[in-house]
Amino acid sequence: KPQVFFRVSRKFFVNIDHIKDIVSYTNSRLQIKLKNNNDHEIIVSREKVKDFKLWLE
Q1: Is the dihedral of CA 9, 13, 29, 43 positive or negative?
Q2: Which of 11, 39, 49, 54 has the most crowded Cβ, counting Cβ within 10 A?
Q3: Domain segments of the chain: what residues?
Q4: What is the 3-state secondary structure (H, E, C) of 11-57?
């Protein structure tokens, strides 16, 4: 089974099963929207974007 969690920044890990949407964000970053959670703005850092996309495959 692939890894379920990914560290998107120094502050956050995300669970692949809880990602609702991913949108482009400023400075070549990505913003993650989670299911059942509208409170947190979770941003994938520029340094992590490439690895994050590979993790999603």
Answers
A1: negative
A2: 49
A3: 5-56
A4: CCEEEHHHEEEEEEECCCEEEEEECCEEEEEEEECHHHHHHHHHHHC
